[in-house]
Amino acid sequence: MSHSAKILPFPPRSLAECLSPREWELRARDFLAIPADKRTDADRETFLCSPEILLSICALLRRNRDLAPTAVLSEAASIYQWISRPSCDLGLFDERDYFLGETALVAGGASRLVGKREEAFLWLDRAEAGFRHTMNPAPGLANVAYARLALRFEMGRHQDVLELTPSLEASFTKLHMEVEAAKCRLLLAMTLKMTGEHSGAIELLDRMHRNPALSSDLFLRAKILAELGDLHQLQGQFGLAMEAFQEASELLQEKEPSPARADLKLCVGATYKALGSLGAAKEAYRAAQQEYSALEMPGPVAYTRLLIAETLLEMNHDREAEWEILAALPAIDDIKMVPEGLAAMGLLRESVRRRNTDTSALKQLRAQLQASR
Amino acid sequence: MGVADDLGTTGGADAFEREVRTVFQDTLGLIHIALVTHYQLAESEALELEKDLYVWFLRFCYRPGNQSAREARPFLLVACCQFAREYQKYLLGSGVRSSDEKLRRLLEREPLDVARDFSRSLELLSFRNPNES
């Protein structure tokens, strides 16, 4: 019986198995540094057929997803396509399925951030298909479920989010995935804010940013503080709001543009507006819009333009407001809107054409877009 | 065993990798029994498979959502049973090896169930789907 091992040769060990995790990451960076149009199949064979390097590539893509969603979407999609070729023989046991799940999950999250919702749902279906065949599907499937809830939130399906998020948070807690459980609580708080349950949302977020499990995730802590500040300003507690914004701002100092920092500027703008400082509000909104533009996030850019337009109208700068609305409409066209949003957009477009902006249509459209930011 | 000797050459001797190695070595006795006694692999085949299992287990522990190598040990046993089953099925299917009744019955069972039986001896219960616990 012993001679039969010669019949089915075991796969040869890859070079990367002899490297340290730090060296895996360096190789991953080498791969991502090759311009996409210059990459050869030999490059892909060298880097992508090594599970160690691929693990590091996935980690880098996850880390950069919120900071450069367009680039990450393109990378994740092209790696997924490479792995999904029938001839691709990758890793051991369940590793090919795992990497299909992981790259599709990253692509799904990035698609959501750049406003491609239908594409995002398809990527998440692909991610689920990959994770389902892995040895330990629970963490991957829970992450897919979270990504789907985030999409539902953006589409304004708040009751769905309120119903499903507590169960998902319990799953993450059971899996000891503290950061992901905290993201669920944040999503729940953001949904409560949208449904007007501000006190409940504040209760959820208060002290959450001091959770030791989040100490290394500055962006998440800053996002929690920004939301907390926004809730305080909605309750008229401007001192507490500014305190939270200040703390969030300190966390993000000297950081590159990020959705967390853009959201923070948006919240600061809302507070200035509530205080009647329209000029300062406009400046804060403009700064947020520039950050979203740098991140190539068309939905939030359009939303922020509408906020600026509302502020400009209040400042009696009607022509400038029209320009902002006209600049926002093409991106809004690309977002799948519910019928109420479409009607408001039609009214707004027509009113701007007549140079007599319909402020209630503007408010309604902006409210429809609010969750998308 | 062979795997333990080879582990020293894999480099990256950080604390995490040491923990993974320790857990793997702690489980290796059970793995070897599963491969040789239950799935009826030859010693040389089992040694080769154990090397692959270690390489896979190390990478598996780096996946997001895996808390510690010790908690991931049940999945190692599932992987062990799954790969042994596929390997034996391949050999039986190609006519290289013949099966007895005991092996045939074992190959009909899902690797997850077989691994769960092995896990019981280590008091490693309720894995794969946390909702099952």
Model description:
The complex is a heterodimer of chains A (373) and B (133). Chain A is an all-alpha fold and 373 residues long. Helix content of chain A is 73%, strand content 0%. Chain A is built from 18 helices and no strands. In chain A, helix 7 runs antiparallel to helix 8 and helix 8 runs antiparallel to helix 9. The N terminus of chain A is likely disordered. Chain B is an all-alpha fold. Chain B has one domain. Chain B contains six helices and no strands. Chains A and B meet through helix 1, helix 3 and helix 7 of A and helix 3 and helix 4 of B.
Tell me briefly what this model is:
Chain A is an all-alpha fold. Chain A is built from 18 helices and no strands. At the A-B interface, helix 1, helix 3 and helix 7 of A face helix 3 and helix 4 of B.
Entry keywords:
heterodimer; A: 373 residues; mainly alpha; B: 133 residues; disordered C terminus
Report helical residue fraction of chain A. over 70%
Biggest pleated-sheet summary of chain B: none
Structural class of chain A: mainly alpha
**Helicity level of chain B, as a percent range?**
55-70%
User: What series of H and E elements makes up the topology of chain A?
Assistant: HHHHHHHHHHHHHHHHHH
Find the structural class of chain B using helix and strand composition. Answer: mainly alpha
